[in-house]
């Protein structure tokens, strides 16, 4: 098994600290630039961690997925929802490629059915959530890539309780974002839930893929 170096362990620790501590960012009157850097740091450090552990094309694909996620985190704050969503969608497409390269050799019918149902369920819910119906088609388009990513993760050979669940947490986080533009607009806990689900999902995906690949690299 490929063991992480001290530097890799330190980077992962800093990533977790940055991601978890950002839950308290709104308690501090920080300059906007500092808050943006803080927000992007968690997943950016996950990307760096994945890069330090990468030994195969799959490892580098994971690093790219995390890097695009961190880019999306920053662009959401600096350039708005649409530009940030484009970065995230690019990350979903790379993740789909990673997961399909690592499909399970055999699937139970129930697991295949769940993967199939993830896509229409996610897209329909996302489409119905926003109060501004003009933006609903764009949200549905983005959610198609999001849902396909989660379905591909579920049928991949990576552990479902880490990578599959992490992808579903990512889906739940984005659905909360869309709900914040609709029925959950005035609920103060939504922002906490969005970040907690998102970062925990990205962390589970990163650790699950890295751990699987490390077992195969001697």
Automatic annotation (TrEMBL):
Cited InterPro entries: TMEM86B-like
Keyword Transport set for record: no
Membrane topology designation: Multi-pass membrane protein
Chief place where the protein resides: membrane
Transmembrane feature ranges: 35-52, 59-76, 82-100, 112-129, 135-155, 162-181, 193-214
Keyword Transferase: no
Compartment(s) where it occurs, according to its Swiss-Prot or TrEMBL record: Membrane
Keyword vocabulary terms for this entry: Membrane, Transmembrane, Transmembrane helix
Family: Belongs to the TMEM86 family.
The protein, known as: Lysoplasmalogenase family protein
Species whose genome carries this gene: Phenylobacterium ferrooxidans
